[in-house]
């Protein structure tokens, strides 16, 4: 089960908690370097045992799904990897085929590191290509609406927020961002 919740993600005595509202806190496996108050994706897994996993966005969740399906990884190791290193660092390690560094990660040996690179290298390249195509589509729409595409490209590079949105939502988001930055620039 996957749901979007607003709450506070925090650590207490070595455990991670997601506080939802004033009286309810849920122990979670943290799958994101993010913490604090915000909107999170909460994934409840009933595989072997009940686990609540928390992600900052759909991009982290999708990458987690790919990670956990690599033989020898599973939910716990995938969540630990994402929590410790974050999405961008893991992608960079996979893109550079850094088996030696990956093998030093908690619970990952040389065989699993090789498997991660072999199975996920294509995923990171495909994701980068998908992101590039989506960014081009957003920038073309901005240009058509009379906005400066160079400034739009700068905004897209500075934030990952648009990656989890569909085209219409991403376009609205970038226009709002550009308009608010123009006000701030004045």
Strand portion, in percent?
A: 15-25%
Total number of helices: 6
**Helix content class:** 40-55%
Largest sheet: 5 strands, mixed, barrel
* Radius of gyration over C-alpha positions, nearest whole angstrom: 18 Å
Spatial strand order of the main sheet: 1-2-3-5-4
- As residue ranges, the low-confidence spans are none
Strands, count? 5
Overall pLDDT metric: 80
User: Could you tell me how far the N terminus lies from the C terminus, measured between alpha carbons in angstroms?
Assistant: 46 Å
**In terms of structural class, how would the helical and strand content be classed?**
alpha+beta
CATH architecture of the domain at 1-56: Beta Barrel
CATH class of the domain at 1-56, please?
Answer: Mainly Beta
SSE topology string: EEEEEHHHHHH
Principal-axis shape equals globular
CATH topology of the domain at 1-56: OB fold (Dihydrolipoamide Acetyltransferase, E2P)
How would you sum up this structure, described in words?
This protein has 186 residues and is of the alpha+beta class. Among the domains are: 1-56, OB fold (Dihydrolipoamide Acetyltransferase, E2P), CATH 2.40.50; 130-185. It has six helices and five strands; from the N terminus they run βββββαααααα. The protein has helices spanning 58-68, 74-95, 99-102, 110-144, 149-158, 167-185; strands at residues 2-12, 15-20, 24-30, 36-45, 51-55. The chain has a five-stranded mixed β-barrel. Helix 4 packs antiparallel against helix 5. The termini are far apart. The model has no long low-confidence stretch (mean pLDDT 80).
């Amino acid at each position: 089960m996957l749901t979007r919740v607003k709450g506070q993600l925090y650590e207490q005595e070595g455990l991670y908690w997601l506080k939802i509202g004033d009286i309810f806190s849920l122990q979670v496996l943290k799958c994101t370097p993010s913490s604090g108050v915000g909107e999170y994706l909460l994934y409840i897994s009933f595989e072997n045992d009940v686990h609540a996993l928390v992600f900052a966005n759909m991009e982290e969740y999708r990458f987690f799904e790919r990670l956990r399906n690599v033989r020898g990884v599973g939910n716990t190791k995938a969540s630990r990897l994402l929590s410790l290193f974050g999405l961008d660092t893991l992608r960079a390690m996979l893109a550079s085929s850094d088996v030696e560094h990956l093998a030093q990660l908690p619970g990952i040996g040389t065989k699993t590191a090789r498997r991660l690179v072999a199975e996920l290298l294509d995923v990171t390249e495909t994701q980068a290509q998908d992101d590039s195509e989506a960014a081009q589509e957003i920038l073309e729409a901005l240009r058509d609406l009379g906005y400066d595409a160079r400034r739009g490209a700068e905004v897209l590079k500075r934030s990952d927020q648009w990656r989890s949105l569909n085209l219409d939502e991403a376009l609205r988001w970038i226009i709002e961002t550009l308009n608010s930055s123009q006000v701030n620039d004045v």
